[in-house]
Amino acid sequence: MSQSPGHVVVAPDKFKGSLSAAEVAAHVARGLGPGVTVVALPVADGGDGTVEAAVAAGFTRVEAQVTGPTGEPVRAAYAWREATEGEAGPTAVVELAEASGLRRLPGGPGAGAPLTATTRGTGELVADALWRGARRIVLGIGGSASTDGGTGMMRALGVRFLDAEGKELPDGGGALRLLDRIDTSGTLPLDGVEFVVACDVDNPLLGPYGAAAVYGPQKGASPEEVEILERALARLAAVATHTHGLAGAVEHDGVVRAMGVAGMPGAGAAGGTGFAALAFLRATFSPGIEYMLDLLGFDRRLEGARLVITGEGALDGQTLRGKAPAGVASAAAKAGVPVVAVCGRCDLDEEELNAAGITAAYPLTDLEPDRAVCLAEAGPLLERLAETVARQHL
């Protein structure tokens, strides 16, 4: 990649509900003006937009028709990169939200199916990548519409979840209350395939901080349905523990977790998909934005840069807990490159921004206090903000 000395790296996440990360980067680049050399690198932390970010960084987009969260067919995509020097084989980036996310619900994110929604489509994307020869699969598991413990994903890879009569259970988390046996004899060959989960969620599978209690209501589950899902996921953990040697102490990152896989950080991510990845795919977990920046080659883009511009829809307390702008700022700080941020709104004060490695923030609300207008006119407003950034920092 050809880069001019003194270039500006534009590495934003999406402005949710308004612009994709790639669109944000394009508007910022336009606002900086033709005299500024821009290297655009849209980023994501494993949630919505992860595939798009990988494609913008040079991966190939691969599309497939798969099963949506409520069983309807959807057209979804994953990102593909042939092996580079030192790699064992091709890499695929599979974003759960592409196939099994809230945005894939036929009636929109508010029309959840908490007991029956499935991650089967995500598994179908993984299977497609395996058939193409992927040797490393990166799973971004944010934005899930399901609380099925990842069983839908595993069904698509050949695992069978059976009741006491040996019949396959229907898709969805609710049915797992009747789980009696897990048959992995038909699982697709996984030897030699590395699975990495890019995720910042550290919830366990069960309990008050688990998948059902914390995230079930966000997917439309009533209090009664949360209880059903909690019992169902507990049954899944119990059967997997009994039949697949997942009981007892488990070491993870040098720490012994007496609760086993179900209690490991991240097991509750994406409605328990983290549990399936840990238990059946032997996946490793990595902080989402850190892993994605490494995968996208962010360090190479920083060489010789004089400024990094990052951002997301809202800079707030969540940003400080490992979201994309904080990860970008941390990586840039190690290279000694200053960082500013653009955003829809900013709820952080100067001290909090500076502690995160961000010199200054430029919210759309500084130009337009009406947030509805900010959403509708985000592109032109971003270009105006970028003009200000250019004047003040370049």
UniProtKB/TrEMBL annotation:
Species for this entry: Streptosporangium saharense
Transmembrane recorded as keyword: no
SUPFAM superfamilies: Glycerate kinase I
A biological process term (GO) from this entry: organic acid phosphorylation
Family membership noted in the UniProt record: Belongs to the glycerate kinase type-1 family.
NCBIfam families in the record: glycerate kinase
Keywords: Kinase, Transferase
Signal sequence coordinates: none
Protein's name in the database: Glycerate kinase
InterPro entries: Glyc_kinase_flavodox-like_fold, Glycerate_kinase, Glycerate_kinase_RE-like, Glycerate_kinase_sf
